[in-house]
Amino acid sequence: MTILLVEDCDRVRTVTLNRPDALNAFNEALYDALTEALRAAAADDSVAVVLLTGAGRAFSAGTDLAEMAARVSNPDFVPGKHGFTGLVDALEEFDKPLILALNGLGLGIGVTIIGFADLAFMSTASKLKCPFASLGVAPEAASSYLLPQLVGRQNAAWILMSSEWIHAPEALEAGLVWRVCEPDELLDAARKHATTLAALPISSLRAIKRTMMEPLREGIAAARLRENQCFADLMGGPANTEALTAFAEGRAPDFANLPAGW
Question: InterPro entries per the record (predicted)?
């Protein structure tokens, strides 16, 4: 199965995450594929806008937890060419409009990617979650910096800390997404807006995006360094180990009996 579907129409490149049986969770192969797709779209003069969505009932369930567990437990695990870090690099560097059509479940990178999007459309059937604390890890993708920019400190604190679902009305009210649509209208609405932008000069679109992004780059870089260090400190620790063990055993994690400080 092709894990990424690409379709061009009217200078809009629609990219569809296509691991529906895994809820479009990102394994190393999908991280690499989307990284290369974004770089290819940036370099292609026939593409003005990228529209990103998911196949099936999920936008993306975030990082593939089975592969995360293998990374922790297997010293011979071979990472992808680009991996998670490469994808975030590509998102930060992408200099054309990026539009999201959040068609279903979104977790982890399926939510934090919104921080790099220019417009996000969300289905009324979609729900979003940042499960970092419930996995015993830290935020990612500069979300500790970009989400407060979008939704304010308190909304961002709840989204990043609680591991609770955020439904479409809450996401719209907080400013996490720009429009909420019925499921059968989502792609049409996103494509309509993408096509409107794509009819405009790419040079102007790039200039506008550059002038909007440039003031944020220092903060993004600093946040990524902080997050990466926290993630490295927590990955494989008692809380993360309990979360991944519970996932593998099909039960809820129990953090009550962790060592002091965890």
Answer: ClpP/crotonase-like_dom_sf (IPR029045), ECH/Chromodomain_protein (IPR051053), Enoyl-CoA_hydra/iso (IPR001753)
Query: For residues 77 and 67, what is the distance between their CA atoms, to the nearest angstrom?
Result: 9
Write the pLDDT tens digit of every residue in 145-202.
Answer: 999 999 999 999 999 999 999 999 999 999 999 999 999 999 999 999 999 999 999 9
- Would 32 be classed as within a structural domain? yes
- Tokens coding 185: 């209208």
Q: Which residue has the tokens 């690409």?
A: 6
Q: State both tokens at 152.
A: 């304010």
Count up the domains in the chain and report the number.
1
Tell me how long the chain is. Answer: 262
Residue 112: CATH number of its domain: 3.90.226.10
Residue 162, in any domain of the structure? yes
Look up the domain containing 99 and give its range: 4-203
pTM of the model: 0.94
